[in-house]
């Protein structure tokens, strides 16, 4: 098809600037019948639109009948929670119904342009999550477990500081906590995000793709960046990311991330709360490089650190295998933490 030949470079460019979360490196590993059975039988999540402090965002929720704790998931950038559907449903089932699970999207990274083109910074996205907890989770009597992915890890740590009496545990997945000056990808994205002309141009190109019939968009994704993606990831890209307002907000948020994460991490807080934190890194992840793994090891002795060596990449949630592996890891961390607490 001629249209695929001409547009596939554009979709590859989109994947490049979407920070590795939407990456052609995502791939499905072989999964046994036991793992496939878990995917097939898990409890399904509910999506709803929520208005907090005057701003609309998407929520993904799975409610337990008698929860012992509440998992709050903070996505990366793009902050489209449907990318994480398989991961969150698997996590709920692996926790055996002991926890309710909520995932909250970033403002203005939704299917519809609810905020009419307004751009939101990293700090504004963080404040919005804090407002959500204050308004929507104020009556939750069980402890909160924060799980963040990429820049969502940075946001989760900020939330932890604010709600130290309410948050019991914080898990950072492939964390983006500091600018990686060795990464050429980050350098290019930083330049594009800082340029109004370049960011507008890229957003416009993506918007054109979003105007295509859905079936054409799906074909383009499946034949370019999403060759091995799960259906939820393909749908998330087509329905939410191929939007002018979404890409504009992704890039603006990225610009403010680079500004904020040029600062030194709060090592004192990490040392103080190291027994209530855990970190998962990838082998080849420029957003959460092994240099950061080593730095946390040195600055925060005794911190719980793990390196994932299954080659799922930063965009683990784009495949069922990656989602399931990380869900098993996270559920194991949570179970071990509360088991220790109960035994004390």
From TrEMBL:
Compartments where located: Lipid droplet
Cellular component terms (Gene Ontology): lipid droplet
Family, per entry: Belongs to the AB hydrolase superfamily. LDAH family.
PANTHER family from the UniProt entry: LIPASE, LIPID DROPLET-ASSOCIATED HYDROLASE
Name the UniProt record assigns to this protein: Lipid droplet-associated hydrolase
InterPro entries per record: AB_hydrolase_fold (IPR029058), LDAH (IPR019363)
Organism this protein belongs to: Solanum stoloniferum
Domain of life: Eukaryota
Entry keyword set: Hydrolase, Lipid droplet
Primary subcellular site in the record, as a coarse category: other
Entry's Gene Ontology molecular function annotations: hydrolase activity
Gene3D superfamilies assigned to the protein according to its UniProt record, in alphabetical order: alpha/beta hydrolase
